[in-house]
Amino acid sequence: QVQLVESGGGLVQPGGSLRLSCAASGIIFSIYTMGWYRQAPGKQRELVATITSGRITTYADSVKGRFTMSRDNAKNTVYLQMNSLKPEDTAVYYCHCQKQGGYWGQGTQVTVPS
Description:
single chain; mainly beta; 7-stranded mixed beta sheet; 4-stranded antiparallel beta sheet; 11 strands; 0% helix; 48% strand; globular
């Protein structure tokens, strides 16, 4: 079955950087659009970034210029490089695969204290 496993979250000071990873299994990874979403306490889950099979990326306005999404099809892994982190980036970050029905990882916590 499809499995998505995120890693790389943690506590980082404002202005710092983190790189999230999402390792996929159970799918032909290279053909699917992948996404990163996040959910802050008391808020709805929101889209952060997506990357297509052709490596076309899109970003939420709130992270443009600070976050970069990439993929390594040989490793069945997507990444989210997060720079210039702000307290408002604090959330659980989820990996998503746009395979029919949609699949989610378990999430990884990112905390940027104010």
